[in-house]
Amino acid sequence: MDSQKMSLGFLSLAFLFITCSSAEFLIQQVTEGRGTENNSSYNLQANLGVTRVLREERPSSKIVTIAGYSVIKERTEVYESSVFEAAGYKWRLVMYMNGNKNDGGNGYISLYVRMEETESLPYGWEVNVDLKLFVHNPKQHKYLAVTDGAVKRFSAAKKEWGFGQLIALSTFQNANQGYIVQDTCSFGAEILIVKPAEKQEKVTFISNPPNNVFTWKILRFSTLEDKFYYSDDFLVGDRYWRLGFNPKGDGDGRPHALPIYLYAQGFRPNAVATNTWGAVNLRLKNQRGSNHRQLYSAAWYPIRSGYGVGVNNIILMKDLKDTSKGYLVNDAIVFEAEMVKVSVTNIVPV
Predict the structure, then answer these.
(1) Percent helix, strand and coil across the chain, each rounded to 5?
(2) At 324, which helix (H) or strand (E)?
C-alpha cells in the first residue's frame, strides 16, 4: 500500500511538472499578407556573402513567436510552423533552435523556408524567390533581416532554402543584445517571387532619321517684339519638336546676340513616352551663300513639353543687321534645324 501511495504521488508530481512546463511553452504564429519587400534598412553587416540588416518594418509573410524560450533552448529537435500562404504559394518555417548540424549550424540558430502542397504544380516547376529571414530585436524595436542576395530556386528537387547560421547563439542569448525579452523571441520570413520579365524597354539611337531637316523663315524681322516666337511643330522620330527665339536676345547674349533653341513637344500617337535624346545642328542660314552660322546642341529632353536647349549667341546682332553679310535679307531671316540623332523607345520581348 505504501509503495502504491508513493507511486501515485510520484505520478501526480510528474503530471504537475509537465502541466506547468506546457503552460510555460507557448508558440504563437502570425501570418501576414503576401510577399512584398520594404527598403528602409540600415546598419549593414556582411559575413561570407550574408548580410544582416536591422530595420523597423515587420516581415511581410510570416512571424513565429516563442513565449517560453528557456523551455526549449537546449532542445535539438526541429520545429515546423503551420502552413502559410505568401506570393501565391504555400510554405512552412523550419527552425533549429540549436542549429542544423548538417548545415554548419553548430553554435547558431538555423532557419529555413520550405515549400508545401506542391502536388498541383506542373511537372518541372520552378519558383524563384528573393528570400529574407528575420530575428526580432524587441530592445531596439527592430528586426534583423538576414539574406545573401542570391535568388533561391525552389523546385521538386530542392523545396527548402534558408540559413544554417542565421544568428550566433552567443549573440542571441546575450541579454544585452535584446533578442530575448521576458523569455520570448520571434522569427519571421519575407518571400518575394522573382518572375523574369517578358518584355523590355529598348532605347535606340537613330542617326539622320527621315525628314530630319526643318526650315523656318521669319518675315518682318524688324517689327518683332521683345518676346519669344515659336515655329510650327515638326515630327522627327517619335516626338514633335519646334524652334523658338527672342529677336531681342536672351540670357548672357542679350541684347548683343541672337538666340535659337530647340524645344521638345508631345509624342506621336502610340509612342512610348520617355526622355528623348535630341542632337541637332542649329543654323542661321546665309541667304546669299553657304557661309551659314551653325552650332551643335545635344541633350536628354524630359517627357514634359516645352523644354528647350540651344544657344543664346548664334550670331551677333551687329553682324545680323549688316545686310552685306547675307543673314538678314528683305527683313527676313531663316533658321534651320537638322536633327542628326534622336532616340526612339519601344517595348519589345526580352
Answers:
(1) 15, 50, 35
(2) none
